[in-house]
Amino acid sequence: MVDAAPHGAYAYLLGQYLGDGHIATHPRGVYRLVITCCNAYPAIVAECEAAIELVLPRNGVDFRERQGVVLVSSYSKHWPCFFPQHGPGRKHERPIRLTAWQKDVVDAHAKAFLRGLIHSDGCRSMNRIRGKTRWYEYPRYSFKNESGDILELFGDACDTVGVEWRYNRYNSISDFSARLRCPG
After folding, report:
1. Suppose 19 and one of 54, 121, 138, 143 were both cysteines; which one would form an S-S bond, judging by CB atoms 3.0 to 4.6 Å apart?
2. Under CATH, to which class is 2-118 assigned?
């Protein structure tokens, strides 16, 4: 099933799901994938929609607006197959492990996976440092998640693409390289 889906789009969607997504069960035995996106970034909402459409092209994508967010969702019986991390409880209160096929996809498309994670639980800002004679400025990324397993997946993907990173708190990774180029 996943073999037929474009792997880069799936890697991005997996990052979004692990950050701000969940799967809800419908009474008729179908599942609803919901990705919560900030409505201040319509390009991220559109990228999330495009990824869902590429992963399951026959399924429609629905949008529901709430205060400050857009819920991007799609119904399918197959969502638990695509996201076997689905389960009861909050993601940070249960183990999150990639299956062998997911790991292969993430290893091959680590930048897309990182992009999805950053678009869900990340931040890009300008870091300003005063040198001896002038101010220096460069983009700085940070990623925050309460799940140690998801933070570990983020760090592993950074290692895969050769990006330096470090924990700046127990639940946050920062100071990773601007070479990642994940605007938004």
Report:
1. 121
2. alpha beta
Q: Look up the CATH architecture of domain 121-180.
A: Roll (3.10)
Query: Can 2-118 and 121-180 be said to share one CATH topology?
Result: yes
For 175, residues 6+ apart whose C-beta sits below 8 A from its C-beta are 140, 142, 164, 165, 166, 168
Q: Can you give the pLDDT at residue 177?
A: 59
User: For residue 72, with 0-12 CB atoms within 10 Å meaning exposed, 13-18 middle and 19 or more buried, which class applies?
Assistant: buried
Query: What is the model's pTM?
Result: 0.88
Tell which residue, 84, 61, 82, 56, has the closest CA to residue 73: 61
* Ranges of each domain in the chain: 2-118, 121-180
Segment 120-135 shows an average pLDDT of 87
E runs forming strands in the chain: 21-25, 31-38, 62-66, 69-76, 122-130, 135-144, 166-169, 172-176
Percent with pLDDT over 70 in the chain: 92
Q: What is the average pLDDT across 70-75?
A: 96
Q: Are 162 and 156 in contact (CB under 8 A)?
A: no
